[in-house]
Structures are given as structure tokens and as C-alpha cells.
Amino acid sequence: MYQAEVVDVTSEIAISAAKLSYEKKLPMADSLILMTARMNGAVLWTQDSDFQNFEDVKYFNKK
Question: What is the pTM of this model?
Fold first, then answer.
């Protein structure tokens, strides 16, 4: 079963995402996704290779 929750992007998330984007050379949209997950205690599962070097992201290769 899938669970989802819609959350607002707060100024705290946006500012943290901008810093992450700059520091890690990560696209801003990806930074927003990651920071939203982190700040809401969610696990980010993805096949997007931009996330493969983040320890708190569950990355798996496309087959």
C-alpha cells in the first residue's frame, strides 16, 4: 500500500534547498525534493542518478 502526504514548501525548506543546490551542484528542483523529504522525516526513494551519492536517499539503478 502506498502512503503520501502533500506538504507546503516553506521558506525554511526553500532556503535550505538553495544552499544544498549551491554546495552540491544539485539542480534546484532536486534540492527542493530532498530538503522537503529531510525536513518532514520522509525517506526519498528514487532512480534519479543526481541522488546516488546521498547516504539518506534510497537510490537504485534503472534496469
Answer: 0.86
